[in-house]
Amino acid sequence: MKNLKSLLVGTVIGLSSLSVYAQAPTLPAPSPAASVSQVFGITKIEINYSSPGVKGRQIWGSLIPYDSIWRTGANQATNISFSTDVIINGTTVKKGKYALFTIPGRNNWTIILNTDADQFGAFNYKKSLDVARFTATTQMGDMKERMAFMIDPTSDSSATVTLCWEKLKVSFSVMADTKQMAEKSIEGFADNTWRTYANAANYNADNNLDLAKAHDWAQTSISMKEHFYNRYIMARVLHAQGDNQSALKFAYQAKTLGERTNDGFYNEYKDALAKLITDLGGSNTPTEKKK
After folding, report:
1. Is the separation of the CB atoms in 143 and 166 below 8 Å?
2. Of the ranges 17-31, 84-98, 140-154, which one carries the lowest mean pLDDT score?
3. How far apart are CA 113 and CA 97, in angstroms?
4. What's the gap between Cα 288 and its chain centre?
């Protein structure tokens, strides 16, 4: 009987402990998880980090010592990933995920990309695993309570990564050979629809890449489907090639086909087509449309 009572008491205590554990409150993390991603051209940059707060503390040279390796955040080492090969400070960095370490200085920081991307803090940092190491100059900025990263795409081929915390910010540029990658992708595309050929021709025309090939793609698209868009693209290609007379002919054809359907797709390009006709010396008045 005594053993039975002890068993019952132990069971009650155990259940009470489980109940207390199950009802543990959900509390805010001191350095909550954060992430940011951005595509420039066809390259995606993603940064995952924990975001510490100032909380009234002296940050630079105190909480974060100068001239010492830092995880660039809290908890796990901050990591950065690239969906394609990129160039940072003249160094080619292969696509993949990297730990983003830094060595803060009074005026300049050392930025480090390291292949050991999934480590806690910087306790196991090995310089031999660095793939890029370069210097960035710090700037003063507005007060920011929590550390944060921003990615600003400055063109199809470049983006600026900026870390902001307290009243300091530090930036570095990431570049990619977007034109070369796009050309390679176009050459190997298998989705042989009229729209794909038209889009490929449009990209080459936009970037002044192999206009003869762009002309062939536009012509292939036209042979597959009667549509304002592929004729508009052909007009742009011919204009880039300097054949404005032929370009105007296709621009008028695009206008005629577009106004026949007058759908949302056409309306998206209507103003650009009208401008092209004007640039080619044509008229957008109804009486001067040509087939």
Report:
1. yes
2. 17-31
3. 9
4. 45
What are the backbone dihedrals phi and psi of residue 35, each rounded to the nearest 5 degrees, phi first? -155, 155
Return the pLDDT at 8.
45
Instruction: Please tell me which residue, 166 or 187, carries the higher pLDDT value.
Output: 166
How does 44-69 read in b/e, with b if 16+ C-beta sit within 10 Å?
Answer: ebbbbbbbbbbeeeebbeeebeeeeb
- Contact, 247 vs 238, CB < 8 A? yes
Within 8 A by CB and 6+ apart from 245, the residues are none
Name residue 190's amino acid.
A
**Over the stretch 122-131, which tens digit does the pLDDT of each residue have?**
999 999 999 9
Question: In this structure, how many other beta carbons lie within 10 angstroms of the beta carbon of residue 30?
Answer: 12
Please give the Cα distance from 163 to 155 (Å, whole number).
20
Angle at 34 between CA 29 and CA 38, to 5 degrees: 175
* Residue 91: HSE in the Cβ half-sphere, 13 Å Cα cutoff: 15
Helix (H) or strand (E) holding 223: helix 211-224
